[in-house]
Amino acid sequence: MDIRPFDIKKVSVDDRFWSSKTELVRKEVIPYQWEILNDRVPDANPSFCMHNFRAAGLLNKRMKTEGSAYEPPKYTYRGFAVFPDKREDAKDDEFYGFLFQDSDFSKWIEAVGYSLATHPDKVLEDIADKAIDIVCAAQLPNGYLDTYYIINGMDKSFTDLRDHHELYCMGHLIEGAIAYYEATGKDKLLNAAKGFADYVYGLFGKEEGKIKGYPGHEIAEMALFRLFDVTHENRYKELAEYFIDQRGQAPLYFEQEHPEMKGKPDYYHQAHIPVREQREAVGHAVRAVYLYSGMADMARLTGDKELLNACKALWSSIVNEKMYITGGIGGTHIGESFSFPFDLPNDTAYAETCASIGLVFFAERMLRIEPSREYSDIMELALYNGILSGMALDGKSFFYVNPLEVLPEACKKDERKEHVKPIRQKWFGCACCPPNIARLVSSISKYAYSESDDTLFVHLYMGSHLVKDVGGKEVRVDVATDYPDKGNIKIDVTGAAGTDFKLALRIPGWAEGKYAIKTDGLETYEFINGYIYLNGFTGDTHHISLELEMKPRVVFADRKVTEDANRIAVMRGPVVYCAEEKDNGKNLKGIIVKRPFEISESTISEFGTDTVALDLEAYRLMPSGSEFMESSLYMNFEDVAEEEKILRLIPYSLWANRGEGEMSVYFNYSV
Ligand code: FUB
Ligand code: ZN
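# beta-L-arabinofuranose complex -> structure
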């Protein structure tokens, strides 16, 4: 069965929860990020992204005007990231920022593309067209387009595939160009991306004399498969397959590039063993899930069972041993990596926003191979928790690292927690996460729906309207819901009579045995891998209603997660909850939840829209004795007393929107 994402142009999302996010990205985040890319936001880390494209364009112009008299820059390594002391000191023809700064533009234009696909906007399109002109003016006549080497010296381009992100930038450029082309029909950037990919195709491959390497940071793989999807030009698929097959093969390419690393398994770059032999998710978490996404694309397109088995094993390694309850991945900041199984520290977590986004990409691709809630449940978990936490409610500040426990003082004074920030940042020198959230949120319907010729798969529930073509007939599907605050989902299907239309609805794992469905006369259905398949549509409009029980659940981690031993977390539907100092005072770790866990719900409005907050009965141990006792570091147990308290919980994704303070997802409980 050929399953593909549903065309985002054909879906209009009209949802209490998600529309506020997509509108935020459209109205605030995209314009804000354009200012950032042009270094016009005071007090934010400078980007230099558009500066670099302009600088490369300037050199190209010089090359054209000076002809053979032009002397191209000779490569000198200036560091992984270079910033001038002051913004004003930046020279017009020099490169600044991290060496993959180009990718920030590509992610931005991708978000712009998705946004324009559903909300045409002449002003934004004009800005984007002008930005594209600047980017395309930086491209070399042979198709090469990475400003780091164009500015710093092409003589060393593609000589450090492991660390220098040229192929990563190409991958992002392709993704951005496709989104913009699909939204607007304009192919200038797409042609530039194809030009770069064609140049790379000419350089890499198994043929004699070609480079036998592969990207040090993945994304080109999945981007090239997408380019193949759009253009049907086989060489892009061939190149992606080459990159995947070649990775980890002896002799190891990165060892040849960096002989000092000989004999040390390169988990970080996912180059330790050939991909089909991989079983455990290791190394840099973003690189890993981007690679697995490309592998899943290849497994789907080629039917390669060995590759699919590797994908399944890696999926299971992540979700059964290495994932936070929030859908965050990457247990350690050392190498921004997965740690060993069940090592999931809360306060030193890395859980990079990009890594959870990559997990969503991986899930979406596995769903195309096999619609199963094994994947969509996790996709939803990451979206509602570890990804949305990455962006402030006003869309103007961001988390890179998404911890599950924060003590602000420790973040500032303990070097081991330096990577953990207690408040979101306006921007980052290495700014991979903010534009990644923008492109994901603005294409959210792509993750909610996929389709085969006759079936519409509903993976995520959100108010929306779409029209699906079934054998030349238009079937209209309208969804209305207050999800995730409520579990009420109403789906109207119109015009399906006389077609083979099937509707596949996901029943989340957490709602198993706790849902009710009314099918309005449709008697034919099957339940497969967590999806209810409805068919036999004969009436004009069928009104289907699905009710998922949204009761708070007390959740316990596997005993092997020592960090969470004898502690509980609380979830409601797909939403993970946390406590903040703002509601509960300091020393959240000292709060003990009482059993039986009585949880009451209330609706609060301090986060802009109505939000369900939860309250639990709890207590703290407080010194009960004299002044002397109160000031002592240690005391006898008889000198402490229980102080009753109500523990207020809010959705984890909303933490740190009301100033700085402690936060915790896990709590002790009384036995
Ligand atoms: O290397 C590019 C990006 O920077 C990675 O995806 C992030 O983890 C950060 O290291
Ligand atoms: Zn990131």
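# post-check
The longest strand covers residues 609-623.
The chain has a mean pLDDT of 96.
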